[in-house]
Structure formats: C-alpha cells, structure tokens
Design a protein that fits this description.
heterodimer; A: mainly beta; seven-stranded mixed beta sheet; four-stranded antiparallel beta sheet; globular; B: mainly beta; six-stranded mixed beta sheet; three-stranded antiparallel beta sheet
Amino acid sequence: VQVEESGGGVVQPGGSLRLSCAASGFTFSRYGMHWVRQAPGKGLEWVAFILNDGSNKWDADSVKGRFTVSRDNSKNTLYLEMNSLRVEDTAVYYCAKDGEGHKEFDYWGQGTLVTVSS
Amino acid sequence: QSALTQPASVSGSPGQSITISCTGASSDVGGYKYVSWYQQHPGKAPKFLIYEVGQRPSGVSDRFSGSKSGNTASLTISGLQAEDDGVYYCCSYAGGNTWVFGGGTKVTVL
C-alpha cells in the first residue's frame, strides 16, 4: 500500500492550491480517504473525509466552505482543492487511507508542505 | 471539535512501562469505541499503532496496548525501547464522519 501526496508550495494569503494524492497497492475504489494536516511544530488535525465512491464528504469547521475534497477512482487519485488560503493553513498535508474498521487511518503518505505567506 | 487532551511529555527508562492518557468528552472518546493511536518520529509520517481502543494491526508490537474508561483512553508501552522515542497521538471518532486528534505526547526514553 502506498499513498503519495504532491502539489504543495508557497501561495499568498487569499490564493488557491490543489493537492493530489496518488494511491497504489490496494483497491482504491473500496476505501474512504482522508486529509490530515500538521502545522509546523504542532499536532495533527483532521481536515476532510470522502467516501469510497465520492458520494459524500465531510470536513473540519476550520476549512469549511474553503476546502473541497474529491477523488477520481479511474485514476486512483485523491484531491484537496484549497481556496481563500490563510496564513494559519500553513502545514504539511497528509493523505491517509481509511482503515478496515472505517474509523481510523491505516496508511499515510509522506506529506506535502503548503506555505501561505506574503 | 476541541482537541483531545494529552500530557505534553512522558519519560521512562528502557524496560519500564509508561502510560499516555487521552481525555475527551462524551461526544467523542466516551461515546464511541473508535479511539486510535499513532506514533510519529521527527520528519516522518505518523504510523498506525492501535484501533478501536485496544486492537493492534498486524505487524505492531504487542508491547503497545490500549484501553478506555469513560472519557479517557490510554496507551501503554511496556518494555520501553530506545526506538519508542517519538511523539504519540490519540484520535477519536467524533460522530458525523468527523475525527479529533489529541495534542500529542513526547515520549522520551531515558
């Protein structure tokens, strides 16, 4: 099982960025997927979750209305569209596979750094 | 979605046992059996250790065990080893397909 994030970078406050997460080694379309972030020197924060078929999604209050999670099962890829970025969104963003119990994160990528700065 | 409360640091000598607490509320830790634990080494991704309070995924050492009482979950590491040095995070399902993490506990092997 592997998940690998990409798309991070430096963006100005108010800007947009799209992260991708390429999955392999498992049947991507069978599992929900999460985004979790970690601000520099801080703890983990759950960001968003999408069902295996993309039919429903949920996100944290801190990103509601600004971030959108989506997936393309034909490409085994998860996305996070981030708009109206704020300085406090600066973090390493991890994608994580939903576990067999569907309430935990069993495989994580290495993360991609998003820096929001003027 | 308030973060779960963990002690900032816990330490122990090699061979000893340590326990990390994780306190939440009836809306998360106390309301569900879905507490999980993760280990993170500097600059690395978190590693999955425990799910459903006390279940270990395959490949995780049986030195790691989890439990829960009321709104507080705990992770115990027995037979402490140098490689256990790192930061440990608890996480609880909080209903409505949302999750909340603890602030993390730095474990130091003396």
